[in-house]
Each structure stands twice: as structure tokens, then as C-alpha cells.
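stage 2 :: seqdesign
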């Protein structure tokens, strides 16, 4: 028994050291590091087969969602695709950067792509984002830098984010009432911020989500240094304040940490697909600063994901599939590949 504990402690210490090493790289790099992988938008690719669905949130007002119907017209099989930290206000990143929605539809799955939620973690915030008690709207907007736009207005600043309530209540029942979509045993997946959020939503809403997928998610946000890494990423991605989302290390923050709520995922028997790549670039990533940034971010996601894997193994989890490809950085080509690998598992565990 002593040797088992010794091995476990050694593995934990190794993960902590690895996390701290990556954090030191992320925290000392320029803030632009957050721009590469966490939902960065490169080129728009509007899909005319998808359509807009507007649903009112009592807190956030009208919210747009893009929907692509299943090829066979069924209303039973539904999946939600969550965006990354830089979620835009016009289209969801999965539609902009990949063909994943079309592939899902060809598998007879209805695809729900919420639009917006930059830096939100798709959770219900404590307050609109502000710094030093200064309300949003006093800064200079649209300078291209989240750091200089921290006091500017916009979603999540002019109102309080309430994304969890929207996705699990307002949008859920609107899709049922308008289109007959099954409100139960849906799937949900996302990248980076959206990957963490997918597990959170599945953990606390097991009747709605029977399957959850995380690609390059931050699954141990209470690890040393993680809150400050998220703070810097939020400042760069729209100028948001993590303290407006949840107080440090309080119950609300811990509620968002997959490492902490892992027992819920096991008790719910939620089918999970968890992926993080090595951070080593592929030939298509190319040698540039974005690749360097994507390498660092993916290494951080990998350390978080490996920590979550150890936690789940310690709890005796048997409801999860892991993917740790030898190559891949924090970028859309990596996430598209993971979505393709996930598809059979997703298809078999929804509806």
C-alpha cells in the first residue's frame, strides 16, 4: 500500500512541477499569447444551411444561436458546441473555422452553436465585468487590445453574464417548444474555455447532458497559478475581470473546477471524451509566433488534463475516453481532428 501511495504522490508532484513550469512561460509571455488558440477568429465561413435562433435571456437580453439540422430531420439527437475565450458576436468559432457542424449533421445530429460569451466560461457571473468599481463604458472601445478596453462597454460589461442559466433553461426549452428538440440526453463539447464549461454544465445538469467533450480544456483551475493565468487571458480577450465572475477560491470558483467536481461526473455516469495534445506543432501549423503561443497554451491544457486524468483514475472512473495525440497545438486544426475522433462515442451516447 505504501508503494502505491508513493507512486501516486510522485505522479502528483510531477504534474504540479510541469504545471508551474508552463505557467511561468505563459505568465511571462506577452498578453498576445492568449489570442492564438482560445477561440481566435481568422476568417469567416458562414454556413447558409444553418439558421439563427434568437432567444431572450432575462438577464442578458436577446441572444443569438446558430442551429444546423440533422440530415435525416430527427429532433431527438442534439449536441451543443461551445466556443473558446474569444467567442465572437456574429458566428460561433466552430462554424467559422471548421466543418465540424456539417459533419455532425451528416451523422444525423442537430447542432446548436451559441454565439457570444467572450471570456464567460459559460457560467453565471456575480456581476457585470468592471475594474476598481468603475462601471463599463468609460474606456476607449475597439482599440484591438483587451488591456486598453478593460473599461469599455459590451456584453458581460453592460450586463451580467448568465450563460449557464441561458443554456440550461431559456435556450433549452425554446428549442423544444419551437422545433421539438429533445431537451434530455443531449451532448455538449467545447474547446479550451468551452471544454471546461462543457464538463461543468454536464456535471450540474445531468438530465440535459448525457455526454460531454473537452478539447484542450483547463480542467484543474484551482491548481497553483491558474487563476492568474485565466486573469491575464480574460484581460486580453475583451478586457474582462475574473473577479467579477467568481471570488477567488470560494464555493463558486470551486464549483467551476472539473478536478473538484469530478465525483459528480462519475455519479451521473456522464460519458466523457477528454483530449489534449502534446503542444508539438504539426507541419500545417507552420513556424510563427502564433505557433509558439499555441504550443505554450496547449502544454498548459495538457498539464491540467493529465491532472484531471489522475483524479478520475483515483476515483475509479470508467466513463471516460482520453485522447493525447503526439502532435497538436492550441489551434482549430487540432480541435477539428479531435471532434472527428469523438464522433462515434458522441453518437452512441445521446438521444
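stage 2 :: out
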Amino acid at each position: 500500500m505504501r508503494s502505491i501511495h508513493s507512486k501516486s504522490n510522485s505522479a502528483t508532484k510531477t504534474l504540479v512541477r510541469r504545471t508551474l513550469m508552463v505557467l511561468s512561460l505563459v505568465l511571462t509571455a506577452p498578453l498576445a499569447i492568449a489570442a492564438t488558440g482560445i477561440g481566435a477568429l481568422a476568417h469567416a465561413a458562414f454556413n447558409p444551411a444553418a439558421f439563427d435562433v434568437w432567444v431572450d435571456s432575462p438577464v442578458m437580453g436577446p441572444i443569438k444561436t446558430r442551429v444546423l439540422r440533422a440530415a435525416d430531420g430527427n429532433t431527438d439527437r442534439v449536441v451543443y458546441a461551445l466556443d473558446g475565450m474569444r467567442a465572437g458576436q456574429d458566428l460561433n468559432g466552430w462554424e467559422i473555422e471548421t466543418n465540424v457542424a456539417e459533419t455532425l449533421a451528416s451523422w444525423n445530429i442537430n447542432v446548436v452553436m451559441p454565439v457570444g460569451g467572450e471570456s464567460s466560461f459559460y457560467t453565471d457571473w456575480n456581476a457585470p465585468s468592471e475594474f476598481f468599481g468603475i462601471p463599463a463604458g468609460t474606456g476607449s472601445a475597439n482599440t484591438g487590445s483587451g488591456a486598453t478596453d478593460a473599461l469599455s462597454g459590451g456584453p458581460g460589461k453592460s450586463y451580467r453574464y448568465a450563460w449557464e442559466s441561458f443554456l440550461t433553461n431559456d435556450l433549452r426549452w425554446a428549442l423544444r417548444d419551437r422545433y421539438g428538440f429533445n431537451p434530455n440526453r443531449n451532448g455538449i463539447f467545447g474547446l479550451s474555455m468551452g471544454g471546461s464549461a462543457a464538463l461543468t454544465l454536464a456535471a450540474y445538469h445531468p438530465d440535459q447532458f448525457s455526454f460531454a467533450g473537452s478539447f484542450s480544456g483547463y480542467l484543474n483551475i484551482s491548481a497553483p497559478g491558474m487563476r492568474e493565468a485565466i486573469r491575464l487571458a480574460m484581460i486580453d480577450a475583451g478586457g474582462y475581470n475574473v473577479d467579477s465572475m467568481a471570488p477567488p477560491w470560494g464555493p463558486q470558483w470551486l464549483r467551476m473546477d472539473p478536478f473538484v467536481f469530478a465525483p459528480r461526473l462519475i455519479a451521473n455516469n456522464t460519458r466523457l471524451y477528454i483530449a489534449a495534445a502534446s503542444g508539438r506543432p504539426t507541419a500545417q501549423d507552420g513556424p510563427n509566433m502564433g505557433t509558439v503561443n499555441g504550443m505554450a497554451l496547449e502544454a498548459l491544457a495538457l498539464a491540467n488534463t493529465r491532472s484531471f486524468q489522475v483524479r478520475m483514475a483515483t476515483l475509479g472512473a470508467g466513463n471516460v475516453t482520453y485522447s493525447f495525440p503526439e502532435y497538436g497545438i492550441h489551434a482549430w486544426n487540432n480541435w477539428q481532428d479531435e471532434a472527428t475522433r469523438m464522433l462515434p462515442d458522441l453518437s452512441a451516447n445521446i438521444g
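stage 3 :: structure notes
- Residues 15 and 306 are 7 Å apart (CA to CA).
- The two ends are 43 Å apart (CA to CA).
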